[in-house]
Amino acid sequence: MVTIEYCQKGSAISDFALEEFFDRVVADIKAKREVYWPVPSEIAIRRLRVGIAEGVISPNDITFRFEGKTVEVDRWGRVFNWPKGFCEATQDYLDRLLERKP
Description:
The chain is an alpha/beta fold and 102 residues long. The chain has one domain. It is built from three helices and four strands. The chain has a four-stranded mixed beta sheet, covered by helices on one side. A hairpin with a 2-residue loop joins strand 3 and strand 4 (69-71). The longest helix has 13 residues, at 18-30. The chain is globular.
């Protein structure tokens, strides 16, 4: 089982290294390694959710954690029990852009 924890510790993953990170996680899953990845980058979480939606990763093979709780993801990469503060930065910025009047 691969555990991905969205938290402040860990190494940020740049847009340019995102596919390499994804491939490493997929390799860990295929090798059935018990791996813990602390990830402070919401884009990494989003990429893994897309991998689930595409069928590359099963939601049963990966666990997302945030503030000590499991964040459940379905087979389409959707989060149902979205905790406050979990991968919200992009949405917060987009909401602020949409609030701006020309």
